[in-house]
Amino acid sequence: MKKIIQTILQASDSGSLTKIIFAGKRKKSLEYSKITLRPVTIRGEYMYQAEFHFEKKVTHQNIPYHEMIDYASQWICEDFKQINILTEAEDIQILAADPENPRITRRAYKKLRKAAVLDHNRKKHYIIEDGKPCDFLIKLGVMSPEGKVFQKHYSKFRQINRFLEIADDSFRDLPSQGTLRIIDFGCGKSYLTFALYYYLRVLKNRDVAIVGLDLKKDVIEFCNKTAQELGYDDLTFLTGDIADYESTGADMVVTLHACDTATDYALINAVKWHSRVILSVPCCQHELFSQIKEPVNDSYLKYGILKDKFTEILTDGLRGLKLESAGY
Phi then psi for 213, rounded to 5 degrees? Predict the structure, then answer.
């Protein structure tokens, strides 16, 4: 189930989502044959509109943005076993007869499909613009030398800009003078690490010292080579484990791909360093899940999906409380 939710969230957060179709009824008694979900804005509020397709009519329900995943999870578990996600650049099909072991296939769309037309889309101004050459995006193959974003990478382009909007909102909380020290734990291929360097060094004209840390040696070698070729002198990538990393401190800690307890080690370091800004997206919260032993047969935790959700929420809730107690 987690793979399905992550796929839906990635499409939603990319800003290129057109619609999601839930079909393939699990039981014949279900009155509607499918549900179509589209992003909309209603009185300036970003929401989702669900269309329920009955035999002779279609009904609508507006769903708050933050509740969409809860609705989707219920529809997948109880009502439908096929999900089709349509974005600007690709079609994603999920076969979920068993939600815990879904079959996910992706097909690139030959011609860029228009995203759902929203008021906030028409007014959107991206921090990095399509049509204006950006060196790291060109180097990473997202953009042509002329500045045109490639169709197959448009969702990545939107994701980068969404991340930079969050960074921009946090910029005022960083020190106003001196070199900004930033550590990205679990940086992966580092699209967002390069984007953060570009935003702070090029657009904000700040001196920076950014370190990206990851366990994969080949990825780190690629990132260092790319940084050198771009002339990003104050961007360094290291191979290592978050749990063993030592530093004198950081003004900003980024952890977007740190799985399970790696997130906790990153947060512990951020608190220890009194970091001004923490940008964290926890994932794969397995630690508590594995520690809940039998007997749970007489409780709701006997259901694997509920146990997984419970431990995930509990883990993140405890993290949030700990950060609040540290003054965040």
Answer: -120, 135
